[in-house]
Amino acid sequence: MLQLQSKLPSQGVTIFSVMTELAHRLNALNLSQGFPDFPAPPALLEALSQATLSGYNQYPSGDGVLTLRQQLATQFLTRDQLQLDPVTEITITPGATIAIFCAIQACIHAGDEVIIFDPSYDSYAPAVQLAGGTSVHIHLDAPSFQVNWQKVKDSINANTRMIIVNTPHNPTGAIWSEQDWRQLIELIQDKNIVVLSDEVYEHLIFDGQKHHSALQFPELRERSFVIGSFGKTYHVTGWKTGYCVASPQLMRLFRQIYQFANFCGTTPCQIALANYMQQHPEHIQELPSFYQAKRDLFNAQIQNSRFDFIPSQGTYFQNLDYSAIRPDLNDIEMCQFLAEQHKIVAIPISVFYRQAPESLRLIRFCFAKTDQTLQRAGEILVQC
Ligand SMILES: Cc1ncc(COP(=O)(O)O)c(C=O)c1O
């Protein structure tokens, strides 16, 4: 007689699986899940096959292949003039999600509170719950989805142990300004609060704006975990390779958990990424204009539609407001309507909230797609 209780009883199947299944079943254009439908750079694929043929097929160091950690340190040095020790301050992980999970398990104990800004990436709150903590959800202010700092101040108390930041932000494309970081520093600098900064879209930032990493602020260096994803940056989400950067003290806590969560990542992917990064430093410089052109192509077509939008500032997502089309439908119903009637699949924004505002009429489209896919999407959406 098994009598097991779910540890996450309110969690169903994620909306990403639901929508991807819907796209397959209806043979619809899939702009829901966040991944490219174009190939990775040929030189990177070549580097992967070279790595496997050269025998890099056994476990790597638990902290990650050292050359990849060194490449990452070089990237941070070039971009932010930031000196990182690849041995004590960088761990390569099988994707960003496990790094987020381990950072939360490393710091959160029963009774601790974690501030999460909604809409938020769906893995944060369950990870807090599994650690025994409580997530405190603060709504970002629509339509620009900026942080309301008074609400943050009012939410901080003696139990607050972590604040989760995500910039550039999935699903809204909003980014944190330097001023946002300064506000955060002011609120937490004399408190026992760590920052988990999810920066997986760090290189996807548009209109000449600059990404501000938590690591750039000396006041945050000792209290921040910064999480990144090679999958997003190098068009290989299926390689599930990411990283965590933290001070040696925080990294020790992180590795205590990570060694039992996964122990290590995938050797040939790490070798291939290290070689590609060394040989193609221009890749990350070209990314903003590469994705900005895709955003602009998508948005230029929507200009002539009944959807309303604020251009995304970062990530590869564009949100569209459909109030002028079907205000009677909530966003889940709208996504179903679009899939069934127009054969195009998006993601409802309400699923990124613990409790979404009733008035929300926003859906998310991923523009990490070929120009052909984006043109087809535009043709469909102007008909709606
Ligand atoms: C905000 C955010 N964080 C983390 C991840 C997970 O990245 P990875 O695929 O490297 O686990 C994603 C992926 O969609 C994301 O959007």
Automatic annotation (TrEMBL):
Keywords: Aminotransferase, Pyridoxal phosphate, Transferase. It comes from the Bacteria. One of its GO terms (cellular component) is cytoplasm. Residues 29-377 form the Aminotransferase class I/classII large domain. Its cofactor is pyridoxal 5'-phosphate. InterPro entries: Aminotransferase_I/II_large, Kynurenine-oxoglutarate_AT, PyrdxlP-dep_Trfase, PyrdxlP-dep_Trfase_major, PyrdxlP-dep_Trfase_small. One of its GO terms (molecular function) is pyridoxal phosphate binding. Pfam families: Aminotran_1_2. Belongs to the class-I pyridoxal-phosphate-dependent aminotransferase family. This is Methionine aminotransferase. It comes from Acinetobacter genomosp. 15BJ.
